[in-house]
Amino acid sequence: MKTLRFYFVTVGLILASLTLNSCLNDDGYSLGDIYKPVIATARPLNSDSFYLRLDDSTTFFPAAPLNIHYQPLKPQRVLLFYTILGEKYHGYDYAIKVNRLDTILTKAIAEDLGAEKNDEVYGKDPVNIVSMWVGDGFLNIEFETYFSSHIKHFVNLIPGVDAKEHPYQLEFRHNAYHDSSTKKGVGVVAFDLSSLPDTEGKEVTLTIKVNTFDGVKEIVKKYNSGTNTEKQPELSVTHFEDTI
After folding, report:
1. Which of 41, 62, 116, 131 sits a CA distance of 20 to 30 A from 73?
2. Which sequence spans correspond to the domains of the chain?
3. d(Cα 108, Cα 172) in Å, to the nearest integer?
């Protein structure tokens, strides 16, 4: 099982410049333009290449990622720093130079182990939700809690109490493993919603139960299988922690 370590170090691949084919700049884009970082999904193409898709379905092909040794084996959420090189590149909306790419903890919905075991394994420690949105088929959560640099925390999304009758009711769980730190920090995690029943083109209500520092709350989102229903919010952090 994957865990989340809460300490602020820059993670991901720091990418250098690459000599570029001049044909990529025919659309008037400048190599000096640095675009605002966005959260995207890195999607594998084959054993050694991938493309990126934004929440609004815009597609990027990384035409100039110098010495990039990153290869997602399955769809992976990332924070992308990029420069546009040109439009309509081999079937993709844009060709880009990847300036930096930080991986985000990306997980499937976890197995329901039963009420007692869920508390034991997944925990019920509180968090504060900074932001939550559905994008590109993922439930993305930015949350705040207390952490130590030497203790790994465990976060999961699990089915709700009556999952068979209400499959779109879920619980966000946090196990702090008795971390008693007074230092507050922010974590980001994305959950793949593809295991939920297909909504067959209809919009349904997604309810996420969260134990917060102000008590248990239910956050309601709109969900339509695999599509984006919300605008991506501004994140309070610009790099991510040790998530993979």
Report:
1. 131
2. 4-103, 107-223
3. 12
Beta bridge partners of 169: 207
Do the beta carbons of residue 105 and residue 117 sit within 8 Å? no
By CB atoms closer than 10 A (0-12, 13-18, 19+), residue 17 is exposed
**CATH tag for 107-223 (out of 2.60.40.420, 3.40.50.300, 3.30.160.390, 2.60.40.2370):** 2.60.40.2370
User: What is the pairing mode between strands 152-159 and 76-89?
Assistant: unpaired
Q: What is the 3-state secondary structure (H, E, C) of 145-162?
A: EECCCCCEEEEEEEECCC
pTM: 0.84
State whether residue 61 is helix, strand or coil. strand
Over the stretch 22-71, which tens digit does the pLDDT of each residue have? 445 556 666 667 678 899 999 999 878 899 999 999 999 998 876 567 88
pLDDT in tens, 167-179: 999 999 999 999 9
Give the separation between CA 102 and CA 27, rounded to whole angstroms: 28
Tokens of 86: 């040109």
Helix, strand or coil for residue 121?
A: helix
Q: Do domains 4-103 and 107-223 have the same CATH topology?
A: no
- Quote the radius of gyration of the chain (alpha carbons, Å): 19
Distance between CA atoms of residues 135 and 145, nearest Å? 23
| CATH no. of 4-103 | 2.40.50.500
